[in-house]
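Protein modeling request. Please complete all fields; requests missing the sequence field cannot be processed.
Requester role: graduate student
Desired output: 3D structure, token encoding
Chains: 1
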Amino acid sequence: MKHQSTETKGTTWFRFRTLAIILSALVLVTVVGLFLWTAPLYKLAQQWESAQAAKNISAMEDLYCWDGVDAETRQRMHLLLLQELDYPVKSVRVVRWRDTDVDQRWRANLKPVAQLNVIFNNPEHFQVSFIIGRTASGACKLAIMVPKP
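Delivered output (149 residues):
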């Protein structure tokens, strides 16, 4: 029976430790990166829920990106938001972005990264999905559909 030398055992152990350290670092970087990417999404959901509970239309409007939105559309959105404030909220969830068929004449004014799904606590359990996008600075905002140029 052949025995490994102490030097070979030490080299194998060193390689194993090095590999374990590298894998641990990769897992840590992945977890931290995932947290940094998702934390603003959940913060936006909490801000939406707080504005809704407080029936604060101004705070609600601050959650939207208004880039490229004309005055008429902004007024229409204001009226829609006022109507939504009348309903109590049953649940708010952030889910991954599902690319849906949208009228080809429209586009989101931010690149979609997720959806904010809201179910209202009314007899019909009215549901709404908002598009969440990221601004150039990395902040999360609710996107608005605008006409394609």
